[in-house]
Write a structure and sequence with these properties.
The chain is built from 15 helices and four strands. The chain has about 270 residues and is mainly alpha-helical. The chain has a two-stranded antiparallel ribbon. The protein has a two-stranded antiparallel ribbon with strand order 3-4. α10 runs parallel beside α14. It is globular, with a radius of gyration of 19 Å.
């Protein structure tokens, strides 16, 4: 089966579409999110690119009317040599479709996030220290060394280094949030008695207490970007060595940088979006 899946990749074809954004629309957007105060700018960028679960769920349901055939055809997500995930129809698997819709939303908003970060850096002379410090605004990290090195790698164009430094730090930061919510971050080891191991990101995010503590939008954000195979699944891809160099783009790293901005105000975002 592994061989058959690997052979199937040779039959895959790239599908692209072009979206044109009027310059005045982009300039108006940048004026709204990049403001005179750096902290307020970070807040606006963090909030602007956080998915809205209620809106995305409506979009998923609207496909039943706008694209009824595609809404009912199950989907299979293939990795190199295995089936990474399956997504059912909108009626049978609304949450799986929500994951895919959120991942698509990340892609569609990429150019806007790119321009917002570039403008913020230019307008406020933002340094890696600013971003790493903001990520630790709520003391999620006792040491920001790797955070700082990861952001510096992004500044220097070393995108693969940035991904492999920052994604584990995102998991570390989320673990601190889970602890603040009151959920255990360790569990008994599966095979060795009297030994503990860390609770995985996905397991934590699917826990009801964590989902409630984060609120629907922040919980969906972390799941779709880092921990669900129907979304970006960044954490698992990095942890298992599944990241390919050709998939490491500036937009991908910018999503992780956005997460660092979310860390700085996760409590406010959770309370407001709830």
């Amino acid at each position: 089966m592994q061989d058959k899946i690997a052979e199937a990749h040779g039959q895959a074809k790239r599908v692209e579409s072009e979206i044109k954004i009027p310059r005045e629309d982009m300039e108006s957007f940048l004026r709204a999110v990049v403001v005179d105060d750096l902290g307020s700018t970070f807040v606006k960028i963090a909030a602007q690119f956080l998915p809205n679960r209620a809106n995305l769920e409506k979009q998923v349901q609207q496909t039943l009317e706008n694209a009824p055939l595609m809404a009912r055809i199950p989907r299979t997500i293939m990795a190199d040599d295995h089936v990474a995930a399956r997504v059912g129809s909108v009626e049978d698997d609304p949450f799986g479709r929500l994951m895919q819709e959120t991942a698509l939303n990340f892609a569609l908003s990429a150019i806007w996030l790119d321009q917002a970060l570039r403008k913020a850096i230019e307008a406020h002379s933002v340094t890696p220290e600013h971003i790493a410090g903001w990520a630790n605004r709520l003391t999620l990290f006792d040491d920001v060394t790797f955070l700082l090195q990861g952001v510096r790698a992004w500044y220097d164009g070393e995108l693969a280094t940035a991904v492999h430094l920052l994604v584990p730090q995102v998991e570390r930061g989320l673990r601190a949030i889970v602890a603040k919510i009151g959920r255990p971050v360790t569990k008994p080891h599966r095979t060795i008695r009297d030994v503990s191991e860390m609770v995985g990101m996905g397991e934590s995010l699917y826990a009801a207490e964590v989902a409630d503590g984060l609120g629907p939008d922040v919980a969906l954000y972390f799941l779709a970007l880092y921990a669900d195979p129907r979304g970006k699944n960044l954490r698992n891809n990095v942890a298992h060595g599944m990241v390919k160099l050709e998939t490491v783009s500036g937009n991908l790293v910018q999503l992780i940088i956005h997460t660092l901005l979310v860390f700085g105000i996760w409590q406010e975002l959770a309370a407001h979006r709830r």
